[in-house]
Automatic annotation (TrEMBL):
Its cofactor is a divalent metal cation. Residues 106-133 form a coiled coil. The lineage of its organism: Eukaryota, Metazoa, Cnidaria, Anthozoa, Hexacorallia. Keywords: Coiled coil, Metal-binding. This is DDE Tnp4 domain-containing protein. The keyword rRNA-binding does not apply. Residues 165-216 form the Transposase Helix-turn-helix domain. The keyword GTP-binding does not apply. Residues 248-407 form the DDE Tnp4 domain. InterPro entries: HARBI1_dom, Transposase_HTH_dom.
Length: 414
């Protein structure tokens, strides 16, 4: 009718609270009237339930008895004896039983917690839950001893990434090797290991750099005596190629198209017809990677890559270098006292001579081992995928780690 109430909201709330207190007192009086007055004697200890409502609590979960307590934790009745425990000895006995029960319950809960933690540990993706077969699939490492040796070498320094303290060094190395072996996305690795994608980015970026520095010693340019001593039987039978010191070849990695026009021009490969990075690989006659160049733009020729990579500085007088027809470095090798072994050229010839056919076939059969070594490197799928431009800055470190892992495998040629 247009009238406004002058009663404030605070006054209404006070009335509601008074009504609730009145109802609580009514229920308390009703409950106390149903219990003998001799059983309402409070205990001498301070009650831990002072802030709890005044309603009676029924503790029927005890194995020794079923009883009820009031607000002040004074015993009302005890079943099955159904006799009041108002004496001091009775209350002490009941408290002892309660202490025994709660101790047993605590031990049981601790045991259940431990079991749950073990189940969660088994369900999580960690090194401890992998079998030997799974380890080889995820990392390319063929045994647990080699894996733990890698972890010990890599995590021994202070530069190993400490981004995520949740993961152990074993799991961080596993994450990095899975990135190299399977070429997984960082978001996939974050889901597997239960961390954020940003943490995965930092672990891989810094971890690959540390691993490259730690495993660099596995790529060794062997001296001439060691090379001859470990010469495989295939080359020992060939008198013409017994002085072969190294077999070289180039390979390429696909990258996304750069936005910078100069970078786009440098990385445009005439052979692959796509933007690539090129690197030079040199192996010993037995198949171990002994030389690995830095990455160059895909437009660079094989000859320029070889001359600018520092490869010629390792050669000695009398060495033989076996390569493909694209490596036109004969004059540069002669200047260092070395020789070049390549298949015969077919350009401008209707037919090769018989001796040229036989020598070209032998060279092809021996040179195929460098292709097999590069194939071992391409077993790590990151080298087969198209790289994001952010990953290009770590290209040299990734190549070095992959080549070092390949050298940990059994000999390629016996």
């Amino acid at each position: 009718m247009g009238y406004t109430s002058t009663e404030k909201l605070e006054d209404k709330l006070k009335k509601i609270k008074r009504l609730e207190r009145f109802q609580n007192r009514q229920s308390l009086n009703t409950a106390s009237n149903s219990v003998p007055s001799s059983t309402a004697e409070p205990m001498d200890v301070e009650s831990p339930f002072e802030e709890v409502s005044c309603q009676q609590v029924s503790l029927n979960q005890f194995p020794f008895a079923s009883f009820t307590v009031d607000k002040n934790f004074s015993c009302i009745t005890c079943e099955p004896c159904a006799s009041p425990l108002d004496s001091g000895d009775g209350r002490d006995e009941l408290l002892k039983r309660q202490a025994i029960y709660f101790n047993q319950k605590c031990v049981q809960l601790i045991k259940e917690k431990k079991e749950i933690e073990e189940e969660l540990q088994k369900a999580s993706f960690t090194v401890m839950n992998l079998s030997k077969k799974e380890l080889k699939f995820y990392t390319g490492v063929r045994s647990w001893s080699i894996f733990h040796w890698i972890v010990r070498i890599v995590s021994g320094g202070d530069q190993f990434p400490t981004v995520c303290k949740k993961l152990k060094p074993d799991d961080k190395v596993l994450m990095i090797l899975m990135k190299l072996r399977l070429g997984l996305q960082n978001k996939d690795l974050a889901y597997r290991f239960g961390v954020t994608e940003d943490q995965v980015n930092k672990i891989i970026k810094k971890g690959v750099k540390v691993m490259a520095k730690a495993l660099r010693f596995l790529i060794v340019w062997h001296d001439k005596e060691a090379t001859i001593r470990n010469m495989p039987k295939v080359l020992k039978r060939s008198i013409s190629y017994q002085k072969t010191r190294v077999i070289i070849d180039c390979s390429e990695i696909f990258i996304k198209r750069p936005t910078n026009l100069l970078a786009r021009n440098i990385t445009c490969s005439n052979y692959k017809h796509q933007n690539t990075m090129k690197f030079l690989v040199g192996i010993t006659p037995c198949g171990a990677v002994s030389f690995l160049s830095k990455c160059w733009g895909g437009r660079v020729s094989d000859k320029e890559t070889t001359l600018n990579s520092g490869f010629l500085d390792h050669l000695e007088y009398g060495d033989q270098v076996m390569a493909d027809r694209d490596f036109l470095i004969k004059e540069e090798l002669i200047g260092r006292g070395a020789s070049l072994v390549i298949p015969a050229f077919t350009k401008g010839k209707n037919q090769l001579k018989g001796t040229e056919v036989i020598s070209s076939r032998k060279i092809a059969n021996l040179r195929i081992h460098v292709e097999r070594a590069i194939g071992r490197m391409k077993f790590y799928k990151i080298l087969n995928s198209t790289w994001d431009l952010k990953l290009v800055e770590s290209a040299n470190d990734i190549l070095l780690v992959v080549a070092a892992l390949v050298n940990l495998q059994p000999p390629l040629v016996k």
